[in-house]
Amino acid sequence: MISDRAIGFAGLVLSTAFFLYYIAWIGVMPHVDRSHFTQDFFPPCEYGLFLASLVMVTGIGLSITLASFHVILKSGYHSPPKAHTPIR
Question: Mean pLDDT: which of 31-35, 45-49, 61-65 is highest?
């Protein structure tokens, strides 16, 4: 079985590699000539900006949703009683 230390190291290496690739993609490649061969290794920069926006909006939305549920559950909220319809 793989130890926790090995899993943590693999996660660190993968996240560092992704971070460096993303920095090169968004920070460096817009300044490189379009005809250079390194442009073939990266998708258009618009996709990177869309990806970052999507992750940010999803993270903020999920955080707000979880915080709202936490507040609702901790405040002791009970649904209002059903309306009583009078008999005619």
Answer: 61-65
CA pseudo-torsion sign 28, 32, 38, 41:
positive
User: Which are the contacts of 72, defined by CB distance < 8 A and separation ≥ 6?
Assistant: none
- Residue 45 and residue 25 in contact, taking contact as beta carbons nearer than 8 Å: yes
CA triple 23-27-32, angle to 5 deg: 120
Which residue pairs from 49-53 have beta carbons closer than 8 angstroms and sit at least 24 positions apart in sequence? 52/26
Q: DSSP letters along 41-74, please? A: GS--HHHHHHHHHHHHHHHHHHHHHHHHHHHHHH
The number of angstroms, rounded, from the C-alpha of 22 to the middle of its chain's C-alpha atoms is 14
Domain segments of the chain: what residues? 4-73
